[in-house]
Design goal:
88 residues, mainly alpha, 0% strand
């Protein structure tokens, strides 16, 4: 249940532009947990089939890096609800 609530709150925060920095950090933590729970390394097999054959970089890691880029280049002070709240 905590995963469902976390995903929902992070998604709403990012789409609405509300508490964007907190949502980005929370999203990066969740994506890091997802990546570390099933790393796409060779010779590892899991009970569930994978989406494809990746070596080290998969879509979860790319999403994590894209959230890091959004965190480094703060644009939430120009667009979204954070602009109205003057949160820095």
């Amino acid at each position: 249940m905590l995963n469902i609530y976390g995903l929902t709150l992070i998604g709403v925060g990012l789409m609405a532009g509300l508490f964007t920095r907190v949502s980005l950090i929370g999203g990066m933590v969740l994506l890091a947990f997802y990546y570390l729970s099933h790393p796409p390394l060779p010779l590892l097999s899991y009970s569930m089939p994978s989406e494809g054959s990746y070596l080290i970089v998969n879509k979860t890691l790319i999403e994590l890096f894209s959230m890091a880029v959004l965190l480094v280049f703060p644009t939430w002070h120009r667009i979204g609800i954070d602009r109205l709240l003057k949160i820095s």
